[in-house]
Amino acid sequence: MTTSDSGTVALPGNGSSPVQDFLSTFKGLCAVGFLARASYGLARTPVLALFAASLGAGPEAVGFAVAISTVTGIFFKMPAGVLSDVIGRTRTLFMGLAVFALVPFAYLFVTSYEALVVVRFFHGFATAVYGPVVMAVVVSVAGNKRGEMLSWFSSVTILGTLVGAPLGGFLLSWLSGDQEPALQDFHIIYGVVAALGMASLMIALWVMRGRWDQPTSEDGRTVRSVLTKFRTGVKEILMDRRVLLTSNMEGIQNLSVGALEAFLPIYAVMVCGFSAFQAGLLWGVQMASTVVAKPLMGRISDRHGRHSLLFWGMFVCAVPFALIPWFNSFSILLLLAAVFGLGEAVVTSSAAALVADFCKEDNLGSAMGTFGTIFDVGHASGPLLAGLLIGIFSSGTDYRIPFAIVATLLILAAIMFRAGVGSPAHTSGS
To answer: Domain map of the chain by residue range?
Structure first.
């Protein structure tokens, strides 16, 4: 693996120029990411909850079935990232894509709720292994454009998730017609999930042909060397407060996203009296704002530094989040949702890239695994914390104090980041 004068890493493989090689590899990774996330999104929303309910699950059991894959990510993302530093990122990447491609076939044999939970747990290994490793691969090929390229890649994968969800709803409606969905209807949909996962794996095999990376030392594959490097990688990452504080920024920001995802629709419909379609528009505007703004914010972070963007981006999220329960005008709520999405783009376009800036090349996978774990903890905690706060401080219809508390957490995380990491003028490409 070599580095060009521009800072872009050229992986060996096809004899083309470094720039052409980079663009080809990156476009291929985007296609892989889009199909993988479309597959996972199709498997999750709204098909999974309806599948669990059709198997006799109550509300709590449905929630558990939905959440179990996120729990997999919380516990296994960091080990997967460290593993990629030990055995090579390409090998670990294909392990994750193999889960995307093969595990969905197990859904075709699910006939009970218990079996569905087991399959969901193992399906969670897809994002647990693939997520941090593909980010490390993108960082490796992007060089000094890591902020912009991570943002483009993230936007593409978000689009894949957005395609998967409505596709699942459409297929289920089309297959079941006016009747309750039958078991075979769900099996057909998960067959499509498997097909998308297989397509992702096949494209990855083509894109990454001839690009198999090797352990950094000759004895890199011995058991003793693997265990030593594993311990060293974990220690270096967990002892680096810059990595932890930067990852914490993304985790707290994602906590607010999870809270908004759970309770903005309820606030819009039950408090403001809007239709479900209008509630969906509010969330859609927020997501669209994030997707559109991310690549630009990533480019800015590459050219002008990431610290200030991260710090002020938390305030851009906190202010509209705190203001949402003070208004019941649809147009104002649309504006606040769009501003929150912009803030999310500012934070997420810089956080992962800054973590990569802080790390040695050998520990990129470990760092991305730590980052992904904190990300998942934040996303899983958001709805739980918001629900708890609403239960304590309101009657179920006044969200002002709970939302203000979550907004305060965003600001406190920003202050901790500024105090613990500092604010150098420019650190991109370091």
So the answer is: 1-214, 220-421
Residues 202-231: tens digit of each pLDDT: 999 998 876 666 554 444 455 466 566 656
Element of type H or E holding 118: helix 113-142
Number of Cβ within 10 Å of residue 91's Cβ equals 16
Q: Do residues 147 and 350 make contact, with C-beta atoms less than 8 angstroms apart?
A: yes
Position with higher pLDDT, 198 vs 130: 198
pTM over 0.70: no
CATH superfamily of 1-214: MFS general substrate transporter like domains (1.20.1250.20)
CATH topology of domain 220-421: Growth Hormone; Chain: A; (1.20.1250)
Rounded to whole angstroms, the Cα distance separating 199 from 100 reads 10
Sign of the alpha-carbon torsion through 213, 217, 218, 220? negative
- Residue 399 CB neighbour total at 10 angstroms: 23
Within a 10 A sphere around the Cβ of 130, how many other Cβ atoms? 29
**CA-CA distances (angstroms) from residue 134 to 75, 139, 142, 204?**
18, 9, 12, 11
Tell me the C-alpha distance between 257 and 378, whole Å.
9
pLDDT digits (tens, 9 = 90+) for 231-288: 665 666 667 788 888 888 888 998 888 788 767 877 887 788 887 668 767 877 888 8
Same fold, 1-214 and 220-421: yes
